[in-house]
């Protein structure tokens, strides 16, 4: 199908480079070779011009690396890029990968490009890259939205107060944007181009070993990156646990997880592809509705938050005023427990349930959303000030979670402190911000969950074979 023109933005309206040898696509947010609107537009434009397509990726490392990214994140990313490179090669699309910023590689290769196509992300660092590219590149630049179902500005023109205000705005657009994407045929292969690439991504482990990066958080065995693996997991989820998703998604031990969040974060699968597959699956209308709520409404509410909040990683800007006021009012309340960052990271608290959840996060890069909320509320309770708690929660989140440093991460951490919520009954420390206690752990079979965590962690350490199907039912 034709790419909806509302997904396309002209960032720089300039004439084609008459000497252009290819159409260039900066593979940045959408790290996949299929179901990628930006790539399909690049193919369409290249076919029209009688040119091949070249995709490129700039790999940051060392002091210039992606903020807070470590070996865990890079291993997953590189697996995905290897898979994407294979897919691009099958489609006769050239691929160049270098150790530099995305802006640097795009600017360099754009000198020989008739047109530059970008995909789109919403983090501040990505916006900086786009601005740098637009300033330096002389040829025409178009950007194509492929990371959300509904373009953020179209879904809402302002920062939304909560899901209940966002849902009625985005829902009317879903039928227009939840449609299949045609895979175009490349008419002019890129195999004859003399392209210089610094990185052989066919061996992701070797690339990882060659990088200068933070290795204090190791890669995980539980999740392998790449669009092929994302689709395998999605297929297994829709053929099994999805049938009871509406009833079991809130139970960490129930085995109802899609585990799509890391793959969405790294752009290894399209949210539209996920929803279309879910609509065709064997499940009730209620199950499908609950899943679309997670994949589209909740996830894109997070995109709305980071898009309309300049400093979304700042306590003073990300947390609503009413919540900051009530937390400040209770800042002097006695806190019976206080832990250092190191104690939190090692799971050395008095709360056994919290420690188990932290172990899963630390060892496997994942935690069920029900537990993420409990986990974060306790850090607020155990920190000297709300601002300290916010910053510690975000640091731990971004360090250990595979899908950390994502709009969902920044939004979920701010939710702990009152974002997208309303005032509740006033309590010590929390004021009128929503409170959670150990009763949250009694709403599911905690013993079964703990056994699953022990098995998963043993598998990470090579002590047992991990099951193919994982345990948690929440997308986020």
TrEMBL record:
Lineage: superkingdom: Bacteria
One Pfam family per UniProt: DNA_photolyase
Annotated TM spans: none
Alphabetized Gene3D superfamilies for the sequence: 1.25.40.80, DNA Cyclobutane Dipyrimidine Photolyase, subunit A, domain 3, HUPs
Sequence ranges assigned to domain Photolyase/cryptochrome alpha/beta in this UniProt record: 21-152
Cofactors named for this entry: (6R)-5,10-methylene-5,6,7,8-tetrahydrofolate
Protein name as annotated: Deoxyribodipyrimidine photo-lyase
């Amino acid at each position: 199908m034709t790419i909806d023109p509302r997904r396309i933005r002209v960032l720089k309206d300039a004439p084609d480079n008459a000497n252009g040898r290819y159409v260039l696509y900066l593979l940045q947010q959408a790290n996949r070779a299929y179901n990628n609107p930006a790539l399909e537009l690049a193919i369409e434009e290249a076919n029209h011009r009688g040119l091949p397509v070249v995709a490129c990726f700039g790999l940051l490392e060392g002091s210039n690396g992606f903020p807070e990214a470590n070996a865990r994140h890079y291993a997953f990313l590189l697996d995905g890029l290897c898979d994407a490179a294979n897919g691009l090669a099958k489609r006769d699309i050239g691929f160049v990968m270098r150790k530099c910023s995305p802006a640097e590689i795009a600017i360099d290769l754009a000198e020989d490009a008739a047109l530059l196509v970008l995909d789109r992300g919403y983090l501040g660092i990505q916006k900086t890259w786009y601005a740098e590219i637009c300033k330096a590149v002389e040829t025409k630049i178009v950007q194509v939205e492929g990371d959300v179902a509904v373009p953020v500005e179209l879904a809402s023109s302002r920062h939304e107060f909560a899901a209940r205000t966002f849902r009625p705005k985005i829902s009317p657009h879903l039928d227009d944007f939840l449609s299949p994407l045609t895979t175009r045929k490349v008419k002019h292969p890129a195999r004859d181009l003399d392209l210089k690439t610094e990185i052989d991504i066919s061996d992701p482990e070797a690339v990882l070993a060659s990088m200068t990066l933070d290795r204090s958080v190791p890669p995980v065995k539980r999740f392998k990156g790449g669009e092929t693996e994302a689709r395998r997991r999605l297929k297994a989820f829709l053929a099994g646990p999805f049938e009871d998703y509406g009833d079991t998604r809130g139970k960490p031990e129930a085995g109802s997880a899609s585990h799509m969040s890391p793959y969405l974060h790294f752009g290894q699968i399209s949210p539209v592809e996920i929803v279309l597959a879910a609509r065709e699956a064997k499940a009730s209308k209620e199950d499908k509705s609950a899943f679309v709520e997670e994949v589209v409404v909740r996830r894109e509410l997070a995109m709305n938050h980071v898009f309309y909040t300049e400093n979304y990683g700042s306590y003073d800007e990300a947390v609503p005023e009413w919540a900051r006021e009530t937390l400040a009012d209770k800042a002097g309340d006695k806190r019976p427990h206080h832990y250092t960052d190191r104690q939190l990271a090692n799971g050395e608290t008095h709360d056994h349930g919290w420690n188990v959840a932290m172990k899963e996060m630390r060892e496997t890069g994942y935690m069920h959303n029900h537990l993420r909320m409990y986990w974060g509320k306790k850090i607020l309770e155990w920190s000297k000030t709300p601002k300290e708690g916010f910053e510690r929660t975000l640091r731990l989140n971004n360090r250990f979670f595979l899908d950390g440093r994502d709009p969902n991460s920044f939004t979920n951490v701010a939710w702990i402190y009152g974002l997208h919520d309303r005032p509740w009954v006033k309590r010590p420390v929390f004021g009128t911000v929503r409170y959670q206690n150990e009763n949250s752990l009694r709403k599911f079979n905690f013993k079964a969950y703990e056994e699953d965590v022990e098995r998963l962690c043993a598998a990470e350490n090579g002590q047992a074979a991990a099951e193919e199907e994982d345990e948690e039912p929440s997308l986020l």
